[in-house]
Amino acid sequence: MSVLVVGLSHRTTPVALLERVTVSGDALVKLLHDVQSDEYVSEALVVSTCNRVEVYAVVDRFHGGVTAVTNMLAAHSGLPQETLARHLYVHYEDRAVQHLFTVACGLDSMVIGEGQILGQIRTALRLAQEEGTAGTTLNELAQHALRVGKRAHADTGIDRAGASLVGVGLTLAERVLGDISGLRALVVGAGSMSSLSAATLSRAGVTDIVIANRTRERAERLAETVGGRAADLAEVPAELAEADLVISCIGAGTRTITAETIGGRDRPLFVLDLALPHDVDPGVRDLPGVTLVDLKSMQQDGLGDDVSDGGRAEAICEVRRIVAEEVAAYLDAARAALVTPTVVALRSKAAGVVESEMGRLLSRLPDIDGRMRDEITQTVRRVVDKLLHEPTVRVKRLAASPGGDQYAEALRELFGLDPKAPDAVASLEVEQ
């Protein structure tokens, strides 16, 4: 049985389509049970938010599992399967684990490093537990993902990286413009830094926010999260004429905003260029009433350490290292766990042999006293334990490596174990 994730998110899907797939309440509960009831699926968990819908499933066939989950999502959304399939992403086994850990750390979020996703994963797990669709595998995987997310935030401050940079920029804007809550803001770009900027503006009380982007769809998606509106890049000159505050975050190597783009103005304009390479032509500083602050000027003025990206690049790199480390640890433990039922079955068989042989021996020595009987029994058990110790320790260690399940199979073959015995042990562990 392997973990499969089939999903769509703000990175792959238009807002209107994503809205149709998003499920909650009774519909979410039904989707959970419908997925789990498929012949290829044994466990199911669904993470459904405004920015993503992901089905995590434990399956015994890759293609069968993908088809089953895709069909369920199409049925619940009312969308044709071929339409939905164009926007779906699929991860399997190791990649599925890596994806969930990445999501839990906020690296796949619209605002990089946001912590809300941890609560959303926790809610998804709780519902799957209550509905009985999450078994041992998804329980352990989701719990591990939550720990990874917490570690990433605690060790790197990924949720704070970049936020301080935008905060410094808005503080400077208020020195020039005064209270910004009643002003119109234009955010150019719709990537992670633009998302962070828009969210920070919204928290500062700015309600009139315009998002301009090369891809209109992404602009609409981001604008929707802050109650703003979208615009095309071609509309930037017109939007600049109405804006009081501009934050540009594209970094494509072209000058998105120039003196000509801004034109003449009769009121102050504050421009914050957070892009590398810069989006804004330095010549706009010469325009009357226009204040330009970029990463270079912030650094020169000593307004923060590592202001080139607010520490985001370093934090993201460290979070990715944590994810890789935790994925390796999880997979090692999961592979080692696969051999545990076989080891337990082997020791159970050995204990049965000891009991049987001691029964035969003691029936031939009816006059032996209790103390001697106990000593002989303990001696035989110690001999068996010592003989089994090295192979069982080694097989657990070897099982942590790729293809480790083959060692468990070899152990079953060498000691003539009943093929059903390990499964029986595993079932007993789950029931307990």
Name the descriptors.
432 residues; alpha/beta; four-stranded antiparallel β-sheet; 10 strands; elongated; disordered C terminus
Q: Helix and strand layout, with pairings?
A:
Blueprint: E1 2-9, H1 15-21, H2 25-36, E2 41-48, E3 52-59, H3 62-77, H4 81-85, E4 89-92, H5 94-104, H6 116-131, H7 136-156, H8 163-177, E5 184-188, H9 192-203, E6 208-213, H10 216-225, E7 229-232, H11 236-242, E8 245-248, H12 259-262, E9 269-273, E10 290-294, H13 295-300, H14 312-364, H15 370-399, H16 405-414, H17 421-431
Helix pairs in contact: 2-3, 5-7, 5-14, 6-7, 7-14, 8-9, 14-15, 14-16, 14-17
> What proportion of the residues is helical, as a percent range?
55-70%
How far is the first residue's CA from the last residue's CA?
20 Å
State Rg. 30 Å
Task: Identify the overall geometry.
Answer: elongated
Find the structural class using helix and strand composition: alpha/beta
* Strand proportion: 5-15%
Individual helix count? 17
Largest sheet, order of strands side by side? 7-6-5-8-9-10
Question: Low-confidence segments, ≥5 residues, pLDDT <50?
Answer: 304-308, 424-432
Q: How many individual β-strands?
A: 10
Largest sheet: 6 strands, parallel
Helix/strand order: EHHEEHHEHHHHEHEHEHEHEEHHHHH
